[in-house]
Amino acid sequence: MLEILAFILGVCLGSFVNVLVIRLMAEEKINGRSHCRSCGKQLAWYHNFPLISFIWLRGKCANCHDRISWQYPIVEGGIGLLFVLGVSFMPPGDWLWLITFFVMATYAGTLFIFDFRFKVLPDVITLSGAAVILLLNLLRGLSFTNLLLAIVVAAGFFALQYFISRGRWLGAGDIRLGALMGAALGWPDVITAIVISYWLGAVVGLILVIFRNYGLKSELAFGTFLTAATVAVFIWGEVMVNWYIRLVG
Questions:
Q1: Burial track 110-147 (b if 16+ CB lie within 10 A, e otherwise)
Q2: I want to staple 225 with a disulfide (CB 3.0 to 4.6 A). Which of 33, 40, 200, 244 is the partner?
Q3: What residue numbers bound the domain in which 80 lies?
Q4: Statement to judge: residues 236 and 121 lie in one domain
Q5: pTM value?
Q6: What are the TM regions of this chain, as residue ranges (predicted)?
Q7: What is the largest CA-CA distance in the chain?
Q8: What whole-number distance in Å separates Cα of residue 136 and Cα of residue 151?
Q9: Euclidean distance between CA atoms 228 and 90, whole angstroms
């Protein structure tokens, strides 16, 4: 039952994430009525049910019959599944851990979509996420010194690369994302997430070079790997570290 409720909550928040991403990029008000991106007609209330409306309308606008982007159901379902994953791995009775995971996963999903589609990481998302998640982790009893160290190291690591390369290796938004990662994971788990993100980026980049004719200088949305690694390490960080120690030991 808890998994079902978590999925519904995640789907609803995924719907909000879609609205947030599209409207921030279009410089529209967040609180306006939902409307078709093609014809501009406002959606009826019964066309606003996450996932269900997309299936019911067969992926088309009820007015102009233009195709609705697959981003909507993918993001809604994806965040819903992340919430179910969080419930499945929640430490027994640790509801604050679950709330922190829900918040972190929502921010991570939002930044993933921003970077994947538009290659931007808005400060309003990264900085507010870092602040909210830091507060939640402090309420969980995590050490402020530990979290601050993780924030400084992760943000500093990306800032160093940014200034050395003059923005060619990564964007300034990755610096703020590093702060969010540090606030979410603490020390030394944030290092694990950074290492995993570079490995993911290298593997995906190699695959794209081989099969999609990408050049070696083609840009990858590195924030997608950072957010994915953050979610993974938040859940399985200790397992990953122990596995690696056994592997190299």
A1: bbbbbbeeeebbbeebbeebbebbbebbeeeebeeeeb
A2: 200
A3: 1-88
A4: yes
A5: 0.89
A6: 6-26, 95-114, 146-164, 190-211, 223-245
A7: 62
A8: 15
A9: 18
What total of structural domains would you count in the chain? 2
User: What is the per-residue pLDDT for 26?
Assistant: 76
Report whether 30 contacts 19 (CB < 8 A). Answer: yes
Return the SS3 of 60.
strand
Task: For residues 170 and 212, state if they share a domain.
Answer: yes
- For residue 149, what are the CA distances in angstroms to 18, 140, 225? 33, 17, 22
Say whether the peptide bond before residue 92 is cis (omega within 30 degrees of 0). Answer: no
Residue 93 falls in which region: left (phi positive, over 0), alpha (psi -120 to 50) or beta? left
Residue ranges for the chain with pLDDT beneath 70 = 32-33, 35-38, 40, 44-47, 212-219, 244-245, 247-249
Same domain, 79 and 100: no
Question: Are both 83 and 135 inside the same structural domain?
Answer: no
204 and 187: one domain?
yes
